[in-house]
Here is the input.
Amino acid sequence: MATTTGPAAEPVTIRRTYRKSAWLRLGEALLWLLLIGVAIIEIAPISWMFSTSLRDPKNSFDLPPDFWPTALHWQNYLAVINSPDIEFMLFFWNSLKIALIVTAAQLLTCSMAGYAFGRLRFFGRDILFGLFLASLMVPATVTLIPSFIIIRSLDLMNTHWALILPSVTSAFGVFLLRQHFKSLPEELLDAAKIDGAGYFRDYTHIQLPLTG
Here is the structure.
């Protein structure tokens, strides 16, 4: 006796539409208003500085002030750059040089320390890393005078090294890179060991390129 079976019943998907409550919409609107207000507060001083740089110098302190000058004086920038009393290009080059050296130094020191804290296992690692984190709670003003005394004792006053050396590393940078290295799979280090790579080669050829 042949029996026939009907097609299997397809599951019925019930979609429910949840409408946002009025309180939720009001909360989102207030949040957006708060964010817009904070953005205006952050942008306003920069906008005022830029508009002031384009004014006639004698109109910079007019009351009531105009947010945007009626006449734009772009020659103010040329006057500053070409002024014999202001060595603008020297100041610019010094700032650029120090910023590049400090950035390169922090990339090197923070990445190496972050790799050591994140991938290596050694005695006292967690305690030492805790001390690094504790240094984040120390304000920079507290270390200002000790840094000045050290720089003076090293006879580095009035040199660029007085600005570079205190900034060659950053506890916050070490923390960020340590968290990144810990997020990478352990199998990468195991594969590097199988291929005969040591820690330094693993750091330079495998782990460090993945930070980009």
Observations:
- The chain has two domains: 22-81, 88-211.
